[in-house]
Amino acid sequence: MADDESRIRQCRSFYMISMLNRIRRRRRLLQTTVMNLVSRRRRILSICILLLLALIQRNDVVQPIRSCRRLLRNSGWWDTVWNNYSEARFKKTFRVTRGTFLYILSRIRHQLERQTVTEDPIFPELRLAICLYRLGRGDYFYTIAEMTGLGVSTVCTVVREVSQAIIDCMWGDSISKHMPRSEAEFKKKIIDMDELWQFPYCWAGIDGCHIPMKCPPGGLQSSKEYHNFKNFYSIVVMALVDSQYRFVWASCGFPGNSHDAIIFKSTDLWSRIEEGRCIPNIGQSMDGVTVPPLIVGDSAFPLCTWLMKPYTNAVLTPQQRNFNYRLSQARMVTEGAYGQLKGRWRVLLRKCESARDQVRTTTLACLILHNVCIDRGDTISKKLDLTLDPNTQARRPREEVRKLLQMTTCSTVKDTSSEAQKVRNTLCKKLWLEKNTGKVS
């Protein structure tokens, strides 16, 4: 009996254990089925939502613009400058006021606008801003490219095209317009020069200035031609300046090793003056000598009846020293003009990494911008004027100014014109008489 009861208990235990195992398997299967069902419903719901969003945005898809650009263009720099910069900061950045900026833009906009379907063009305002920033600051193209979000070659192209547009559209109204042609215009220039610089019968001053550049290609011969006596490579800009520091005529591009007299004689202006097609016959008669309208220059220029230069004798008389002093005082107008030019447009003060033709284009564009600022009353800060000491605001010594501006210093040209010597001697007597009597005759 005891054995039977033991078997019965064992069978019941086995049965219970089997039933529990079946219940557990059924529960696991039910849980797995429910989880798969929930997951499937979630996937179906996600797919439906994506399809719904795709249908909603189907009509708003923007077709990408075909472009060879790998990186997006950053347009935030110019927006920040135009909208947030104060007038003082804007002028400090671009060297001109907003009014002058808009005036320049209005003159050259038609040459800066681009019509293209394969690329998003750079708008004219940004192109002019890049050019003025380069001319005013003299920064490297790479620096400007990183700042504006453009390529280095793009920035270089923009500066070249905008500079050429300024020359093509504004040279006549900014440079040639101030070159006197009629008798009335010459007389006005002479009066202004006499009142402001105290030299009679003079209407302009002439001088040359070096524009630093990298060593040009062409081998040893080219290196010798462009390597000047100041021990760097350059081209020379030769210009006439009136009493208001405005450039009325300019020639740029001669090698830095060229003599001032050779450069001036090689220009069309020299030929026109020598042929009598430039300066009118309105000379002033003094002691039987006719004094025509004069240009003042240094000893590197040839002495002509219309071109005055200082006495270069080894021993000078008091009258000759007085004449040289008055002539030197009148010639300071050219140093002042170059000081403002290179002080405002610093690209001309530092060595330019561009090619020779681009340096010439940049220089001529800066001459135009210099005159535009003067005509519009856009004054230059005294801190930028290189003829003034930034600490004392006093004028720097003359030799220091000429060295800082990298102005030309050539050998003296011998005086060969007897008629020109008569004119100079007559002026020498007049200036000595004015000094002694205090009266202007």
Can you tell me about this structure?
The protein has 441 residues and is an alpha/beta fold. The protein has two domains: 76-174, no CATH class; 176-437, no CATH class. The chain contains 15 helices and seven strands. The protein has helices at residues 2-56, 76-84, 87-94, 98-112, 124-137, 141-148, 152-174, 183-197, 219-226, 260-265, 268-274, 318-344, 356-375, 398-404, 418-437, and strands at 202-212, 234-241, 247-255, 284-286, 289-291, 294-296, 307-308. The strands form two sheets. It has a five-stranded mixed beta sheet. It has a two-stranded antiparallel ribbon with strand order 4-5. The radius of gyration is 39 Å and the shape is rod-shaped. It starts with a helix and ends with a helix. The mean pLDDT is 89.
Condensed summary:
With 441 residues, the protein is an alpha/beta fold. The protein is 55% helix and 9% strand.
| Overall pLDDT confidence | 89
Residues in helices, as a percent range = 40-55%
Q: Tell me the strand order in the biggest sheet.
A: 3-2-1-6-7
Succession of helices and strands? HHHHHHHHEHEEHHEEEEHHHH
Give the tally of structural domains: 2
User: How would the global form be characterised?
Assistant: rod-shaped
Number of helices: 15
Low-pLDDT residue spans? none
Largest sheet: 5 strands, mixed
Number of extended strands: 7
Task: Briefly note the structural class of the backbone.
Answer: alpha/beta
Q: What percentage of amino acids are in beta strands? A: 5-15%
Question: Keywords, please?
Answer:
single chain, 441 residues, 5-stranded mixed β-sheet, two-stranded antiparallel ribbon, 15 helices
